[in-house]
Design goal:
Elements lengths: L11 E5 L1 H11 L8 E3 L3 H6 L6 E8 L2 E10 L3
Parallel strand pairs: 2-4
Antiparallel strand pairs: 1-3, 3-4
């Protein structure tokens, strides 16, 4: 069975906090609620111990290009 959390095709997820989170949002001129969402029950959020209101950085690679995206952790409705 394949591990859905630590599989090599799953992009790297990291919890960012405090100054780094505020700096990223300020640089992108966004408020946290403007970020795409990720549920606190998502396997990666659970693994990181993320709580609603936290920001998760996801490092992706497409066609040789690396980039980072950010998600706001929210409660599942």
């Amino acid at each position: 069975m394949t591990d859905k959390i630590d599989n090599e095709i799953v992009p790297l997820h990291a919890l960012i906090e405090g100054k780094e989170s505020r700096a990223v949002l300020a640089d992108m001129q966004l408020k946290p609620e403007n970020l795409p969402k990720i549920f606190s029950t998502d396997p990666q959020a659970v693994k990181l111990g993320a709580k609603p209101g936290d920001v998760i950085k996801i490092k992706r690679r497409d066609y040789g290009n690396a980039y980072e995206i950010y998600r706001l952790v929210v409660e599942e409705q």
